[in-house]
Every structure is written in structure tokens, then in C-alpha cells.
């Protein structure tokens, strides 16, 4: 009897153990974290500089990144630091972008694999560099005559991307100047160090450089030096006012290469300045004020005789006190 009892007890223990084992949870199966391949190795490289060739220029963007599962790529591209989506769901590691102007461009790539796991690259940049704008606005103006032998050259220079520019200055007596008189200067003005020859024609041009190898070259400009022709107008004159049947003495002095002055305008001890255009053979005095009086004058210059003739108007406050013709005849 004891054996039967022992058998049943043993059987119950075994059944209990089996039941306990069946009630335990199944151990989890290791799955591992899934990651899509990070886009990398961008071309153009980060901060690369590419010459700008014109609107419609294409730039091939490529990158590295692979995975065992199917991959789709989204490409973001543009001029903003957070570039807009340019293309979605492409299957190759390249995209051809089209640009219309120079400057900094931003791009990034996003990867999505077959399990919808997405990884996005950093934002990459590169610079499309335009050549500097062609230098312009020469001073002296091209073909100018009567230029001082101690001339200061100046011009306008700028860059489409706002890059700092340097300039080379070419100056010589040949129609295609080859002598560099200044190089790598940052100013848009240059004072010729030694006086130039008298009554000589000089040719000059400017070559602009940006920091990335961009170059632009101005046209060749010219000017002719002479002695200060306006000095021929210096001296004592008879100032005649025919309508007033009145004349008086006056003296002109060359102040600059384009102006003469007097300290006895209208025979009143007034200072006045005439600006003279020796090419157009004209002169003018802008409105000048002497206390309650003011006046204007303009006319022509006879460079062969030195005679200056023009019309004038004199006001006292707002009232015209005299109008007429001045004829200045050199004594």
C-alpha cells in the first residue's frame, strides 16, 4: 500500500513540475536595432569652390551610403540654409542640380530603407564663384585730354558674391599696356607715383581678382596729358558790360586744371569761380552768394584769343538787379 501511495505522490510531483514549466513566458528573441546607411562623403566636398559658367549650369551631386536592404534617397538643395526638397525616392547615389547664379548652395540627403528606417545627413555647402564684375567708370574718362601729369586713376569695382577684390593696374604709352604699375591693391584708386610726360597719350586697364581665382579685365582706356591749358586764361582782363556801357579791370587765376578764380567779380570785390570746359569751350559760374547778393553766369571761351563771353544775372535777395553780357578781353 505504501508503494502505491509513493507512486502516486511521485506522479503528482512530476505533473506539477511539467505544469510549472508550461506556465513560464517564452524568452524574447534578440532582434537588434535597424539603421539605414548614413549618407556621407559628399561631392562637391564641403566648402568646395566651383567656377560659375553661367545660368543653367549643372552640378553633379554624389554621396556614399549603402545598405543590405533596398534604399531610396531624398535630396534637398537650394540657396537657403534649410534647403527645400529637390527630388524624392531616387535609387542612385547622385543628383544633377541646375543653378542660375553664383553664391553659396546648401544640400543634404535623406536615406530610407525597405523597413522605413530613415537617416538624414548633415547640411553640406559649396560655393559657386562668379568672376568679378568688369571694372568700369574710369577717371580720367577715356579719351580725356588736358590730364594732369600727376594723375590719380580711379574706377568702379564690385563682385556678384560680395567677395573682397584686389586689382592690378596696367599703364603705358602703347595701345595694349603691358607694364604693371600696381598689383594686388584693394583700393579702387591709384596715384601715379612719378609725373607723366607732357602732351603724351597713355593707355591703362584694370584687372580685378577675387579670393577664389576669379578674374575680370576692363577695356583699355586712354587719356592725354598736357600742360595745364587753363593757365592760358590767367592774367589781367578788361571786363566789359555793353548794356551798361561800363567796363572795369579784373584778374583771373588758374585754381585747378578746370577752374579759374577772381576776387573782383562785378567790380565789387567778390570772389567768384568759373568752371571751364576746354573741350567744349564753355564756362559756367554756379549760383554764388555774397551777402544779400547772388549771381550766375555762363558762356563760351575762345581758347585762341583768351576772350571769355557770357550772360549773367545778379540778384539782391530775390530781386533781379541786373542782367546782361560780360565780355572779358585779355590785356
What's the structural blueprint in terms of helices and strands?
Layout: H1 2-23, E1 40-43, E2 48-51, E3 57-64, E4 71-78, E5 84-90, E6 94-99, E7 103-113, E8 118-120, E9 124-129, E10 136-139, E11 144-147, E12 152-156, E13 166-172, E14 180-185, E15 189-191, E16 201-209, E17 215-217, E18 221-225, E19 235-241, E20 246-254, E21 259-265, E22 270-277, E23 282-290, E24 293-302, E25 307-316, E26 319-330
Uncertain segments are 1-14, 17-32
User: What spatial order of strands do you see in the largest sheet?
Assistant: 19-20-21-22-23-24-25-26
What is the end-to-end distance? Answer: 166 Å
Pattern of helices and strands: HEEEEEEEEEEEEEEEEEEEEEEEEEE
Helix-strand makeup class: mainly beta
Fill in the CATH topology of the largest domain: Lipocalin
**Text of the CATH class of the largest domain:** Mainly Beta
Rg, rounded, reads 43 Å
Integer tally of domains: 3
Task: Please outline the major beta sheet.
Answer: 8 strands, antiparallel, barrel
Q: If helices are DSSP runs of H or I spanning 4 or more residues, what is the number of helices?
A: 1
**In percent, how much strand structure appears in the residues?**
over 45%
CATH A-level architecture of the largest domain: Beta Barrel
- Give the helix level as a range of percent: under 10%
Amino acid at each position: 500500500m505504501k508503494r502505491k501511495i509513493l507512486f502516486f505522490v511521485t506522479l503528482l510531483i512530476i505533473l506539477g513540475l511539467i505544469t510549472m514549466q508550461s506556465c513560464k513566458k517564452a524568452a524574447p528573441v534578440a532582434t537588434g536595432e535597424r539603421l539605414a546607411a548614413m549618407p556621407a562623403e559628399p561631392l562637391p566636398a564641403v566648402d568646395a569652390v566651383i567656377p560659375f559658367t553661367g545660368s543653367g549650369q549643372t552640378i553633379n551631386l554624389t554621396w556614399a551610403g549603402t545598405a543590405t536592404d533596398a534604399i531610396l534617397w531624398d535630396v534637398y538643395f537650394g540657396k537657403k540654409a534649410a534647403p527645400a526638397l529637390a527630388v524624392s525616392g531616387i535609387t542612385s547615389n547622385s543628383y544633377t542640380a541646375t543653378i542660375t547664379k553664383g553664391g553659396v548652395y546648401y544640400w543634404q540627403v535623406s536615406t530610407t530603407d525597405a523597413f522605413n528606417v530613415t537617416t538624414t545627413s548633415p547640411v553640406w555647402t559649396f560655393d559657386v564663384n562668379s568672376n568679378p564684375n568688369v571694372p568700369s567708370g574710369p577717371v580720367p574718362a577715356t579719351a580725356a585730354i588736358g590730364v594732369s601729369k600727376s594723375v590719380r586713376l580711379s574706377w568702379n569695382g564690385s563682385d556678384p558674391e560680395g567677395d573682397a577684390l584686389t586689382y592690378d593696374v596696367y599703364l603705358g604709352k602703347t595701345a595694349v599696356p603691358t607694364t604693371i604699375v600696381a598689383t594686388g591693391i584693394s583700393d579702387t584708386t591709384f596715384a601715379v607715383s612719378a609725373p607723366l610726360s607732357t602732351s603724351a597719350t597713355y593707355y591703362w586697364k584694370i584687372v580685378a581678382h577675387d579670393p577664389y581665382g576669379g578674374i575680370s579685365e576692363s577695356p583699355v582706356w586712354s587719356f592725354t596729358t598736357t600742360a595745364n591749358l587753363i593757365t592760358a586764361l590767367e592774367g589781367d582782363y578788361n571786363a566789359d558790360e555793353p548794356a551798361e556801357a561800363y567796363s572795369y579791370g579784373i584778374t583771373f587765376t588758374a585754381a585747378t586744371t578746370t577752374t579759374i578764380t577772381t576776387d573782383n567779380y562785378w567790380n565789387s570785390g567778390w570772389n567768384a569761380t568759373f568752371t571751364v570746359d576746354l573741350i567744349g569751350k564753355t564756362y559756367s559760374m554756379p549760383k554764388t552768394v555774397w551777402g544779400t547778393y547772388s549771381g550766375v553766369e555762363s558762356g563760351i571761351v575762345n581758347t585762341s584769343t583768351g576772350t571769355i563771353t557770357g550772360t549773367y544775372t545778379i540778384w539782391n535777395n530775390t530781386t533781379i538787379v541786373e542782367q546782361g553780357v560780360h565780355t572779358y578781353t585779355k590785356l
